Each structure stands twice: as C-alpha cells, then as structure tokens.
Amino acid sequence: MKEPPPDVAAVYADFPAAPRRALLALREVILRTAAALPEVGELTETLKWGEPSYLPKANRVGTTVRIAWKEKTPDQVAMFVHCQTNLIDTFRTRFPELRYEGNRAVVFDVVGPLPEEVVAECVEMALTYHLAKRRRAS
Known about the structure:
The chain has one domain: Aspartate Aminotransferase, domain 1. It has helices at 6-14, 17-35, 87-94, 116-127, 129-137; strands at residues 43-48, 51-56, 65-69, 76-81, 99-101, 105-109. Helices cover 41% and strands 22% of the residues.
C-alpha cells in the first residue's frame, strides 16, 4: 500500500499507538475498496479539518470519507461522511449492528476486529454516492 502524503502521515504519527493502528486499518480498507472500483478512479488522500480524508479526484463521483480519533472518546475511532447525504441512514438500515454518531459517522472500537467487509460496503457507497444518485434518477 502506498504511503500517505507527508502532511497526512504526520497526522497519523501524532495519534496514540492503538488509535493509529485502528485508523490505519480503516485507511487500508478505504484504499483497497477504491482500487477495486474503476468508476471511482484515482483517490485523493488529504486533510480536512486536520483529519485524514479520502475522495475521488474526479468531480461528482462520490463524497468524502474522513476518519478520526478524538481525545474525548479515546476508545473509539470514527468514519465520517457528509452529513447532508442519506448515507448514514442507508448504513443504519443495512448494518444495524454498527454504532453511529448522529447523521455523520460510524463509530468503531479502537481495539478488536474491524468489520472489514461491512466497512468496505459503506466506503463503496460513499465513494460512488453521486454516481449512484444519477443512476437512480435516470
């Protein structure tokens, strides 16, 4: 897997060890999922609000997936999507076993296994959000 850009790598390096491992596992699922979706094309890895974020380079393909750890919730990491989409509602319907934070995030424990297949499905829905919306409209 390719290395993150230096500014993103620096943010990962600043996380405590356990959250960093969890976030890097999320990053791996995001990158692997995007690579398996030719319609997504190249992915941009950047920082939004100082947090690692992933979005298709091409316009109107998908929405940003952002991952984060917060000191106020040290035992969890979160995967955020744009709050003005219906993605979290869709995730809730399809994956009621996951934990959610409002209409913006899926929350995972820092320790323990990451449900990679479920995360990959959520990432795919986010990274193809605009394409899927256009398909449904036609």
